[in-house]
Design goal:
By secondary structure, the protein is of the alpha/beta class. It has three domains: 20-220, Class II aldolase/adducin N-terminal domain (L-fuculose-1-phosphate Aldolase, 3-Layer(aba) Sandwich); 235-389, no CATH class; 403-657, NAD(P)-binding Rossmann-like Domain (Rossmann fold, 3-Layer(aba) Sandwich). It is built from 24 helices and 19 strands. A seven-stranded parallel β-sheet has the order 15-14-13-16-17-18-19, sandwiched between helices. A five-stranded mixed β-sheet has the order 1-5-8-7-6, sandwiched between helices. The protein has a four-stranded mixed β-sheet with strand order 9-12-11-10, sandwiched between helices. Helix 11 packs across helix 15 (353-366), helix 19 (461-475) runs parallel beside helix 20 and helix 20 runs parallel beside helix 21.
Length: 660
Amino acid sequence: MTHERRFTPDPRPEVGGSGCEVTHIVARSRESIQRGNAVYTSAKSIATDPVNGAQVEVMWTTAQRVHRSDTVTEYAALRLDRLHQLSRNIAVAASTPEELSTALGYCLFAPAPNPLMPAAAVQAIIEATHVDIYLACPAMTVAVADDGQALTERMFGDLIGWIPFHTWGFDLGRDVQRARELQSRARGCIVEACCVIVWGDTDREAAEAARWVNKAVTDYFAVPRSPTEPRNAASGTSSISQRDDYAAALAPRIRNVLSAGATNSGRLVGHFDDSARAMNFVDHDDLYLRTVEGQDDYLDSSLLPLVIAPGLARSATLQQVAIQVGALARPRVRSPAVIGVPGVGLFTYGTTKRQAQLLSEALVEMLPARARTSPSCLTRIRQVLAPCADVEQRRDKPLAGRVALVTGAAGGIGRAIARRLATEGACVMLTDIRDEAAHTAATEIGPEWVARGIAVDICDERSVNEAVERTVLAYGGLDLVVNCAGLANARPLLATTAADFELHHAVLAKGSFLMSKAAARVMIDQALGGDIVYVCSKNSVVAGAENIAYAAAKASQAHQVRLLATELGAHGIKVNGVNPDAVVRDSGIFSEGWGASRAAAYGIAEKDLGAFYAGRTLLRSEVLPEHVANAVFVLCGPDTTRTTGMHIPVDGGLPDAFLR
């Protein structure tokens, strides 16, 4: 049987740039995932076969298995004629999801960046130009409810269909298409314990259908409690700020339990949520009884949901709560994990930040806000969470699972370090005195599940402590800190004021001390070791004229490395430093006056500084921000696990700076 063409030729049919429709599905999928949701978008169009020039029907879909947290969602292109031929293959119809994923690969129109998900088979069979499949959204509350079919009929009539539970694949697509034909007015359907599917002739229609169905469910299951309303909280806390303080102190202890015995690459990354819906979940006494004291229906699933006893959490110390988490978790430790603490919030942990966030969003969206959960409802929730839990990160990144904080990260050396750490698999919090610049630098590195930027006054202890707290709440813990914030001016002794001297020591010496102290507190509680790296300077070793404020403060930093290495080694925390020579390119310090004063001292033009510094080195080479970033990675990477208290010169070879 010939498959009839139903779709309008794409206005820009070339492969890899199939026009605005494909741009929209990728952009909307990326936007949704950055919000924490899981959605597979798709569009069908006509494209030109690059081999023979023929016009063929193609489905563009984002239904792919994304393995790395720094991978931006892209589309795959599949030929519809081959998809329909594949759907009639009896062996494929009975295949496992993994086998179906492999089979879908034979239908590709162009190379795909990632393996395909079985959801692509569902999208192919549904005869609509745009088909979007949601795994995490408010409408999933209905999908997992005991009376889901009745709720669907009551809320939507014939505008949204109901499909009984089905495994992923072509057969599910056929069931949805039959329901679509029977209900001609339908804008989508809810698949029991599986997903929500919407469609439209345009991308806008599909997106509006999703917004409409989710708003209807949200309004129906409205949570009466205000997100800012004080709640019963652990240890007597009541305000949101107090809950955040408590959560930030508890998170490293939870992470210790879940990552116990893990290598660096086996650590879990976390997500914290204390929204109204999340609090509805963790404060649900009936859910607590079913998950902890019941028949382990939920605990022994592929996930690890644990809810701390309400009576204990409201009066317990952090250590008592951590002990209970350990008692419940250690017999069943696995990834990912879901832990709710009444009065505090919902902690989720996974191999990546993205996985942890998806699980949290899916869970709080699905739990009926006005209904008491049943064992069957929890079983359906477990079924739906499985695909979200499958968003795994390959453990081929040396810093995978590690959380880093870099100060002075808005530009120059700090930004290069943050980028390198993220490239190697770490989640990175970029801090800088300039808020907007920190956010911009983080955005350039990747989405929020990879990098975030916040403003920090490194001289202020409260600001520093808040930065560490925000990092812990954002990513579940802290493993690596790089002290890179700095400033410099060059003046002779008699022209250096007390204010100059104090400012340099406040930013460089005191700032590094405050950040190291706050980070060490988390790392010690976390009991997983860690790394603290100081970006010092060759000026901490070499004595030079007209540089008293800067060089003395850098020497203080250098000795902090040795002192902290001695003190923190017992906790498995390594402390090291790098000593770069002048880094001119992309340097905020050099562009703010330091470059002009140095050039004047050397009697050269400021534009020639880079070449001047390179000419005085043994290697005759200029030091760039990336070179310093490489050294930082070496110190916190897998090849220097027995190195602490060391300084690596990154200066092109300066005999005066040789360490003796």
